[in-house]
């Protein structure tokens, strides 16, 4: 009975923003705001990162060798991975292996504890992107990469000895869930978390985003759309 009420509410919430427009316009200085360009772009050393969507999972993806293990020591669990996929979300819903309406309702309409999900990707980048519905490429420089990594690291809860807490693992320990700071809610979603990280790194992006479509429409303006849903 609960699903009869929950389904239309969540469906409406997830479908109130226009789909990603493939036609993208790239801002001057590789998608950075003018202010960020002046502050950060002191050299030509740019890195490539990606925003991806896989069903209800949205994440930021790095080449493994560009994730500094001093900033994010948890990368040690993914030796040999080609990519590192990182997302933030509701602690209960995110760890559930399938979609659960009751958990989705709790996650959206009540402030709930959060988790940081880190996945080691052991297939090729092309194969991984084939599994994604949306992929947007972004260019960042060394300083912005550090800012993003520190933003992610600061999301992970750590004890007095700076040790993180593993909540669970999945798929033969290719995915780790870590206890995280922040409450997940209707207006503080995984998309909000990603947008705030990009904003902090100097991208000209709104940081009050809650919907996946909002995030990727913004990302299409500051980056390059590699793949979009039909």
Strand and helix map with partners:
Blueprint: H1 2-14, H2 34-40, E1 46-54, E2 57-63, E3 83-90, H3 91-95, H4 101-109, E4 112-121, H5 125-130, E5 134-141, H6 142-155, E6 166-170, E7 175-184, H7 190-200, H8 212-222, E8 224-227
Antiparallel strand pairs: 1-2, 1-5, 2-3, 3-4, 4-7, 5-8, 6-7
Helix pairs in contact: 1-4
Order of helices and strands: HHEEEHHEHEHEEHHE
Query: Gap between N and C termini, in Å?
Result: 33 Å
| Domain module tally | 1
Q: Provide the helix percentage.
A: 25-40%
Instruction: Please state the structural category.
Output: alpha+beta
Low-confidence stretches: 4-17, 23-33, 36-43
The spatial strand order of the largest sheet comes to: 6-7-4-3-2-1-5-8
Describe this structure in words.
The protein is 33% helix and 27% strand. With 230 residues, the protein is α+β, with helices and mostly antiparallel strands. The longest helix is centred in the middle third of the chain and has 14 residues, at 142-155. Helix 1 (2-14) crosses helix 4. It has eight helices and eight strands; from the N terminus they run ααβββααβαβαββααβ. It has helices at 2-14, 34-40, 91-95, 101-109, 125-130, 142-155, 190-200, 212-222; strands at residues 46-54, 57-63, 83-90, 112-121, 134-141, 166-170, 175-184, 224-227. The chain has one domain. It has an eight-stranded antiparallel beta sheet with strand order 6-7-4-3-2-1-5-8. Strand 1 (46-54) and strand 2 (57-63) form a beta hairpin.
